[in-house]
Every structure is written in structure tokens, then in C-alpha cells.
Amino acid sequence: MWLNIAARLFWRELRRGELWVIAFALCLAVFTVVSLTGITESVRSALSQRSSNFIAADKILRSSLPFNEQIFQNAEQLGLKTAKQMQFSTMVFAGDQMQLVSVKAVSPSYPLRGRLLLKSSEQADATTSNTVVKDQVFLEPRLLQLLNIGIGDSLELGVSRFVVGGIIAEEPDAPLSVFGNAPRVLMHVDDVAATEVVQPGSRIGYRYQFAGDTNTLKTLEQQVKPLLTVHDRWQSLDRESAVGSALDRAEKFLLLAGLLGIVLAACAAAVAASQYSQRHQMAVAVIKALGTTTAMARRIYASHLAMVSLFSIVTGLLLGQLASSGAQWFIEVWLGDYRPEFSSRPLWLGALTGVICATLFSARPIWRLAAVPALNVLRQRALSFQLDLWQLVTGGLAIWLLMWLFSGDWWLSSWLFVLCLAFAALLLGMAAVLVRLAKPMAAGQSSALKLALANLRRRLWPNSFQLITFSLALFLTLILYFLRAELISQWQQQVPAGAPNQFLVNINEAEKPQIIQLLTDNQLKAGDFYPMVSGRVLTVNNEKLPESDGREQDAEQSNAGQSDAGQSNAAQQNPERQKGEQQADIADNTLAAGRDTQNSGTASSGTRREGIGRELNLTWLHTLPANNQIVAGQWFGAEDKAQVSVEEKLAERLALELGDTIGFSVGGQPFTATVSSFRKVDWNSLQPNFFMILSPDLMQNFPATYLTAFYLPKQQTALLNEMARSFPTISVLSVDNILKQVNDIIAQVSLALTVILVLVFAAAVLVLVAQVQATLEQREQELAILRTLGAKTVFLRKAVLAEFAALGLMAGVFATLLAEVLLAVVQMRLFQLPFSLHFNLWWIGPGLGLALICGLGWLLLRHLLQLPTPVLLRRALS
Amino acid sequence: MVKKILMSLLPKIAIQAKALRKEVQLTDARLTILQQINLTINSGETVAVVGASGSGKSTLLGILAGLDTVSSGEVYLAGQPLHQLDDDARAQLRAKEVGFVFQSFLLLPSLTALENITLPAELAGIKDATARGRKLLSDVGLTERADFYPSQLSGGEQQRVAIARAFITEPAILFADEPSANLDAATGAKIEDLLFALNEQQGTTLVLVTHNPQLAQRCQRQLNMHAGELTELKPEVGDVA
Ligand SMILES: Nc1ncnc2c1ncn2[C@@H]1O[C@H](COP(=O)(O)OP(=O)(O)OP(=O)(O)O)[C@@H](O)[C@H]1O
Ligand SMILES: [Mg+2]
Predict the structure, then answer these.
(1) Which of A584, A592, A579 is nearest to A553 (CA)?
(2) Residues 164 to 193 of B: which have CB under 8 A from any A CB?
(3) N or C end of chain A: smaller count of CB under 10 Å?
């Protein structure tokens, strides 16, 4: 019976549009969660897939022992894709030329991620292929010149003879370092045995490459654990690089935005439900007077809420999924090789959000609605359906729970939640004070302003609540807007337009002016020339440093230049892995590259001073490089002699203190230097970076080579060939691809951020609309009364505008204040960015508040103000 | 019909109040609204409650109708001890035995005129609600307005719908709190005619609160409320007869 009535009332209510605001708020909450989670996950997986390209796989197991086929079998049983890779150095011979080369032998399935491009010639119309072929080798173009051979000629490698099948045009996991690096030869892994290069004791790097979904890869890691030794270790994608940290920040931002979106949508739902209850209290009193029990009234209205919720949640899920599919499609078009992955997490998270918002934010007012006494039909005492304490508490808990579920980050969600609470309390206090203060202020004002202020004051509590929600909505929009701008500009600073994209290494003294000449002739600007010598650190305070341990490490070191993106990134964290190629430092940090996780054994131990164990690149400079920062001690003065400035992480590793003496050896010649400063190095900058910088006096007598960098526009790439011909010994490292990748990612993430900003803004506007609508009925009556009392339309219009303007301005100022505080905290704590004041905020915030709230208020009330008095009266009284 | 005839033959007590008292707790003091009310209303009687504004008429009506509770004393409605029933039991009793007409009509804005009329019948689980509704709609002269919403009806029309709604469950007792106060004199009179006509037709007990002396005159009994005390103004019909 009640169902019948419930259903009938429901359709009526729908027709009258009473339930739409709740429906819309719930729908928006669900939509926000689904789309944000979905988009975040897509962007994340796109970026990690893209980063996978840099290591040509999703996960790599590195070993110094020959392949254990069991591991490949396990992987294949799990359905993972696998590839083999061996790396070693050897000599190749062609005619009377010989050359040390770095060989990469791979199976035909290589690369698992990214693209290998082999070309039959250097001409544009060359035929291309993507896999290695048996009995053929593929060479880096400069090797052809060094060996003085062409494609189709043959060369000897070990005891075998190979035909040069072509050149390597693109190699996903190309070594980013060419300094001191032997040219690359690519061959089939099955041909290695016949060359007899692999002898007991020879140093070979073995790599097991895997690709597949993350969970399966984890399973594999567990499965093969017993098979591994100290010589094996996993390498996987990591977030240490610039792109990685950009992504991290973007994710945190998205998370933050998502959380805030949820808060806003939940507020909107609560306000809408309160408003709904407010408007329906008389109807409830009537049906109860007519004999409905409280329980039945509750069932009737709860069923309405249930139907609305169901509808909204389903719609929200559908729209959200649509949006995130759209985003996936977009990413797919953009990236080409992106493989969309379906995840159910956004959906259940969205559904849960909907249910929580419906039960804890909307159900409470409706619960109270059903408790309206039947007696109210006689005594028309309007009840207030503002949020009560119980609702605030449960709602607060629910928001917190949602934040936690959504972010998976207990700390961040608790922190943000407490902050929001504190802000709400603060705002409440401020609002109360301000509205009280408004009374004496109004004394000398025009009557429209007086009426506005009187209105504000009379609705003190509802207005404080409105003020809080307005401020909160504005505040959230503001911080998102500013954080987004900040993140994007930070990233762009990392890769400014015209940043050097070509690095020249191994320039000798005589070539220096020629290079400058060549560049000037081509209207290009050479950067600073950094002198370099390689040397060893032997002692600290006359105490000999231990040699590095671990056989596999040695193996890798002897594979001169086998440094790939992953390894060179490791170099950043573990100086002992640092091959001494600054280019690696330059490049690796921009990539989401791998970090090694030690399987066992070689982990460094405690406070013991650890050795570097291999050569470092040393430079000497008069002035501190721009992206370096002295953290302790002082940079060399003109008079200072025999000093060294050390990068802080390395200093920590060597347990150095200012004033310690370091013993170096360069070309067999020992000398010492005093540690005079520690430097913080911005590894994220695409600039040459050095671990040790010596004072210039020390190095005058050593023959040095130089490193420089310059920006080469795309249309001038031909210059690189000319350079390779004229200066065969100079190595060119192009970071163009990396730059492009970084720029692409920044563009994508920026777009995602913009989309999310728009979503959150929509949520904020919805809250404002719900709030203004909530007071509509009351305003209608007020207007009717004022009209009957003879107030002119113009006057009423002014009064209403003034009221909203006051609200908007107050909310804007509060929001600005809070945003500035929170921005400072978030910037410094969450994103590790330096603090800065946001001057723009101080006019955007109040301006936005004023414009938005006035505009919305006006839009929603316009028709009321235009109604002729009789109609207004009739509506107000019915 | 047979039931009605039998009922009119055997005078039966519709409402009885014994030593009824109503107090409300204000922030600093206790306010006594009704003190020591004793009242018996027989089935089928029409009773007007008059008195100054604020004297406690609506409060009494609310208690007699089971909308409000007593502070002390006993109240019986259709034989049921209201003072011993909880909210839900009183609601059920209202659904079965009571009809209301209010000063401000109180129609549900989201339902049409006809739906407003049939609502109590549906709540009481009456089968032929729509047929009854249409009949009543024509009784109050609004057949044409069946699908109008309250906002599309004039005040008098709304009150006619409210009266039709009050009679649809054929309640034993009808309470009306100033049914014509919000209407002009002519319309008010029409509403009153309707009320008495339907009352006659269904043999309902009618308790109405009014400031209008003419309306009070039309009732068999007139009770005067003064500062929470009730006095009979006119000898009971029974006594006269
Ligand atoms: N819940 C309450 N709290 C405080 N005072 C109350 C309450 N209910 C009623 N009163 C007071 O009791 C008195 C009687 O109220 P009641 O509504 O019964 O008067 P009334 O006779 O119907 O007046 P009117 O003719 O103006 O409708 C009034 O003074 C009213 O203010
Ligand atoms: Mg009254």
C-alpha cells in the first residue's frame, strides 16, 4: 500500500523537479570519483607503459650468470612475454681496421616494449625492419665510419664473421651515454655462442626481460625468488626520475582534486537533501495527520531517496566510465602504442561514494523529515533542516572514509580532512563575527544595503553555513587552479623551450674553437665547455677506500658503456655505479627509468665508508654551475688552491666532512684536495652535472677533453652528420627524443589537470546552486512581503544583489586567505616546492567569489524578481 | 447505511475528555494552555468551539484528534483511550476514524486535486478510492478540476478539495480548524454549506473551531474557550429535545 503511494508521489516529485537537485549532486559525486579515478589510472598506466619503452620491457632481471632457462619457462607459463639480452664488450675487425665495440645480443622478441628500427641504409628510402636476424649484425652509424666499411660488408667478431645487415636507427633502451662508450653492435643472441667470445671469466651482462601486467610480474618475482643468487637483481620502473616525480606530483594533484571533488559533491548532496526536507515538511505533517505512521512516512521518503540514488549512481557510473573511456581513447590516439586496461576500481569506488553520500548525507535530513509531528498541520512551526550535529559527525566520518578509500593514503586523507574541519570551524567563527559586525556598519548606509545586511544578519546560521560552503567551494577551486598552474610551470621550467638537446663529448683542446666556429656558422650557440678528466678517488684523510665488491658489478663496469637508462639512473642514487658519464646524468633523470633492487649481498652496510670503486669524471670550474647550490662550506675563491666541491649524496656516502682531504689519481698521478663545499645538484635539470668539481689550479697540467651542449632546431639535424664526419672522435648525444617524451607527458598531464579542474569547478558551482536554491522559498516569501509593503523592484533588485555581493566578497576573501595558507603547506610538504606568495590570488579569489555568487544568485533569483506582485503573493502563500 | 441508521438511533459517545490538562515547558516557566477540561460529544453531533485568539482552541482540537498528547487527564476517541496510545496507534486510529479540514487547506502540491482527495483512502487501504474520489469531486463541484494541481486552484477551490479529502474515508469524526477563515465571506459560506451537507449525508460527528459567529450558530452545540477553560454556550440539543 505504501509502495503504491510512494511510487505515485515519486513520479509526481520527479515531474515537479523536486528530486533533481539531489539526483544531480549524487550523480556528480559518483561521476567525479569514477572519472577521476579512471583518468588517473589511465594516465598512470599510459605513462608507465611509456616509461617501459625506455627499458624495452616492464621488468628486467639482471644477472652476471648465464641464463637460467627455468626462469623463462616460469614466466611463459604465467603468460608473460620474455626476451633475452646479453651485453659485453669486444673487438671487431674489418680489413685492417679494428674497434672496441659494445655488443648487445638479443632474442627476436626484443624489444618487448618500445620500437626497434633497423635500416638497410642511411638514405631516406631505406628499407626498415624491427627484429634482429641471425648471422647479421647491425651497427651504430658512426661505427661504419670508424671501421671504414659499408652496409653489406662483413666484419669479424670473435671467431665468427657477420654481414653488416644495416644500421640501428632507433633502439628503445639505447645507452644514453656515449662518452667513453664503445659504439654499439646489435646481434642475435643465438649467434653469441659461435663467436666464442664468452669464456670463463669474461664479463657478460645477462638480462631477462619481461612484459605483462603488474600482478603477474609480481607473481613471477615471488616464484623465481628461490632461483636467484647474489648475482641477480631486479630492475623495474621507478619514480625517481624527473618524469617520474612529475607524474607523482600530478597523481597527488589528481588525488587531491578528487578528494576535494568528493567533499564538494557530498556537500551539495547534503544541502540538496536538507532543502528537500525543508520543502516537504508540511506534506509529511499532512500525510501523518491523515493517518500515516512515522515508520510508513519514513518508508515512503526513503524509497524516494533510494530510487533517486539508484538512478543517480547508475547514471554517474555510466557517465564516469564514458568519460574515462574517452580519456583512454584520447591517450591511445596520442600515444599510438598505449594498451588500455580495464579496471573495476573506479566503478566500485564510484558506487560506494554514491551509496555513502546518499545514506550519510541525504538520508539524515530525510530521516528527520519523517519525524515531523503531525501536529504541525495545526501549528505551522517551520522546522530547520540544516545539518545537525549527528549529520555533521557521520558525514564527516564518511568523507574521511571516502578520502581514504579513494586515495589509499591514510595520512594524506586524514590530514586534508582535519584541515577542512579546522577551516570550517574557523570560517564559522569569522562569519559569526562579521555578520554581527555588519549591524553598526549598516547604520549610515543606503536603505538597500541596510536591507541586505539585515537579511544577512537575520539568517545568521543559515548564512554562516552558506558562507562556509561558498568559501570552501571557492577555496578548493582556487587551490586547484594555482597548484595546476604551478605544477605545469615547474615542469616546463625543467624543459624550457630551446633547452640544449644535443651534447658533445670528448672534444679536445684543438677542436674546441672549430666546434664553436661550426656552431656559429650555423647560427647556433654553443653552451659552456666543461673540461673533464677521469680519475679515481683513492683515499679520504689518507685512509684507503675499500674497492667495490660484487662480481656482477665488476662485470658491468668492464662492459664499458653498457650503461642504459636504468643503470645510469641507478648511478644517481648509488655513486659507485656511476660510470662517470655526465651525459647519463643529464639524460637519465628525465626518464622514468629503473632502479635496482638488490636481491641480497651487495647492499651497502651502515656507516662504513664506502668506496667508489671506479673512475669518476672530474671537472674544474671557476664559477658554480647555475643549477647547483652550495649547502655547506664555500665555493672556491680566486685564491683558493687544491680544493674540491662534492655533491652532497656522494659526500654522505663517503662520510666526508668539510676540511677532509681526498686523494685522487688521474692518469696514474696522485694528488690531494681539501673538501671545501658540498653541493646540491638538480638532477632533474637537463644540464651536465658533476659529482666532484675541483678548483682550477689542480688540473692545469692534465690533458682534458671538453663537454658542451647546444640547442639544435629540428630542421638543422643534418648538421649532426656533418659533425660526425668532421670530428669522428667526438660523440654526439641527442636528448631530443627524451625531450619530446617529456614534453608529451607534460602536455598530457596538463590536459588531465585541466579536465579535473573543470570537474571540480562544476562541483563547486553545483554546491553554490544548491545553496541558493535552498533559500529560494524563503526569499520568495520575503520578496512577496516586501513587495506588498511597497518596495520597488529596483530597490529589491539592489538589495538582493548587495546581499549576494557581500556574501561573495566575504567568501572570496576567506577562500583566498585559506588558499594561501594551504598552498604554502601543500607546496612545501606535499610537492617539495619552494614557498612563494601568490599575488594573483588576492584579486582572483575575491573577484571570483563576487562574480560567481552574484552571477549565480542573480541567475537563480532573476525570475522571482521579475514576477508581478500578485503572482509572487500567490506563490508565496500557496 | 444500515450502520449509520443504527448509530443515529443509539446515541454513542464519539469523544470524551476527562480532566484534560495541557501544559508546555517554556525555557523558564511552565505554561498551562488547557486546564481541567471535561467534555462529551456524542456521535453525529456538530460542535463549534469559539473563543479569543490564543485561548487554546487549536490545542484542544489537536488533542481530541490525536495529533497532540495530554499532560494529564483522559481522552477517548471512538472508544479508544488516546492518552494511552502511542504515536503509531493514534495514526492508525486517525486513518480509520478521523478527517481534517485546515485553515490553510494543506493540499500536497505535487498531487492533482483528485489525487489529493484519494490519498487518505489509499493510506487507509480502501479499494475503490478513485471512484469515491470522483464522486466527492462532483459533490464539491470540481469535476472539471480533477487534474489540476493545487497551485492552479483558487483558495475556495482548494478548500473544497480539502473537504472532499476529509470525507473520502467516511470518517466517524471530522475536525475543522477555521475552515473558512482564509476565504472571503461568500466563498466561506459556500464551504460551510458543503461541510454541513456532507456531514448530514454521512452522519459524521463534526468538531469545528471558528471565530465566525454565524458558523458557530449553525452547530448544534457551541463551546466557548476562555483562557484554557471550556464552557457550554447553548443547551445541548438533547436537553432541548
Ligand atoms: N508548543 C507550544 N509552546 C508554547 N506555547 C504554546 C505551544 N502551543 C500553544 N502554545 C500557546 O498556547 C496558547 C493557545 O494556542 P492555540 O493555538 O491553541 O490558540 P487558539 O485558540 O487556536 O488561537 P487562534 O484563534 O489564534 O488560532 C497560545 O498562547 C500559544 O502561544
Ligand atoms: Mg488556532
Answers:
(1) A579
(2) 165, 177
(3) N
